[in-house]
Amino acid sequence: MTSTTPPTRPEAPGSLSGHAGEIAVAVAQAHGVDTMFTLSGAHVFPMYDGAVKSAESERPVRLVDVRHEQTAAFAAEATGKLTRVPGLAVLTAGPGVTNGVSAMAQARFAGSPMVVVGGRAPNNRWGTGALQEIDHLPIVAPVTKHAATLMTADDVATGFDTAFRLARSSHRGPTYVDVPMDEFFNVGSGPRTAGGDVAGETPDSDAVGRIADLVAAAERPVLVLGTDVWADHAEEAALRLVEEMRLPAITNGMGRGVIPGGHPLLVTKARGAALGGADLVVVVGTPLDFRLGYGIFGGQDGTTPAQVVHVADSADQVSGHAALAASVSGDLTTVLDGLLVALSGRRQPDRSAWVSRLQDTVAQASARDAELLGAEADPIHPARIYGELVPRLADDAVVIGDGGDFVSFAGKFVEPKRPGCWLDPGPYGCLGAGLGAAIAARIARPSAQVVLLLGDGAAGFSLMDVDTLVRHDLPVVMVMGNNSAWGLEKGPMQMLYGYDVAADLAQRTAYDQVVGALGGAGETVADPRQIGAALDRGFAAGAPYLVNVITDVDAPYPRSTFGI
């Protein structure tokens, strides 16, 4: 068993009783869970019975069964990202749990709150070779915040509450519990505890003051806003700081949309100039990993290296490898509002030339982008897909990326108008997360457009779960960039060796026909002038719909890093 001391929470009046599955579902309900993602397995039948009986409660728990446990776990991870309430995946013992490990690892790297419940061989048969008998904890402990076996039915109420509280406390992430099968069916009791958000750490006010001093002195500051700004409910505070201090900002991960697309202070399209020319970079809510040059900024055109500030939601997330001028951890709204208060009324350098320079760079990049977005090339340039898609996206559309090269273009061209509307795998880089995320998004945002961007390679991991979309009446528009290759690997291998192997897929596979066979619909598009009409049909379909666009394998995304 691995454990982290959970934040304390007062008990609610009364107690819970019933079989362990009923108790577990009641605890999940108290923490705001309304959907259970699973693939049928006898080890966890009591959880299903608890969900069925919850229909009579104020917060019924919907049961969504999928075709692969990875999809259940990815759906729970995406639910945690979108709703900021822990997603719940219930996986049967043995391979059910191990099939969910990649999603747990993705959640750990991305800071996504989720609880995974595993089945477990019965206590009364342990050690005799029961079906799928394995101790899961040594497998899942390295990729979770907390992993525990709840040995009796009476342990379930407190054990599940601990798992949910740790999942939603900073720094958020996945937790895991399993219950022996015989005890899952047993009757037990336990305390009824209140759910709800867990208070964040109180930041050091002196540290906030030191950061304010650095910002006040900077001539060319840049603010980087990442996933935890959204996860920590700090999106309004971040926008206030940017607008009132007129700080140019770059967003990544689920920080995308915190500064609305098109905002004059959003300079993501001038990322190279901003991070290369800055004298101070304040990174909030995202690690200083390969996506941010490991925390090394400045030095462009003979300028000195930039000073770096790291702001995180918990102390363990503050960079240990970067040379930091200052850092602080704690509740991000408190930090950002504290900076705003400390900076208000202070004399600061005139940064209008710096901001104008970045805005000019954004305008130039947008002009260059316009050529690609309208490209008439045959085969189709991947950018043309976004030229047709972006104007059709509503402000509250949820856009999901599941792919390598094709989805890299999305990061360049799609700028969400609202926070909480962009989902990507995060720094762990899993393929195959998309169908689970699409299922979660359609449930979490029933009135919004949900668009899943798929590479043809990524589709092979999970396209069978279109069946889940169909069975549960979850219409999603899927847009595929089909270049018949593993594009993210093909180009680099050619660069290194002058040839590539294991990088090609079957030419022009009719994945839309696969979707049709599963009960959805779709079409193949090979003419750029037909993309827009195909998208319109997809949005109007009222069913899972795949627009399978045949793209040019020789039009790769221009990247400056391979993630190492």
TrEMBL record:
It is an enzyme of class 2 (transferase). GO terms for biological process: isoleucine biosynthetic process; L-valine biosynthetic process. Residues 20-137 form the Thiamine pyrophosphate enzyme N-terminal TPP-binding domain. Keywords: Metal-binding, Thiamine pyrophosphate, Transferase. One of its GO terms (cellular component) is acetolactate synthase complex. Pfam families: TPP_enzyme_C (PF02775), TPP_enzyme_M (PF00205), TPP_enzyme_N (PF02776). PROSITE patterns: TPP_ENZYMES. Transmembrane segments: none annotated. Belongs to the TPP enzyme family. This is Acetolactate synthase.
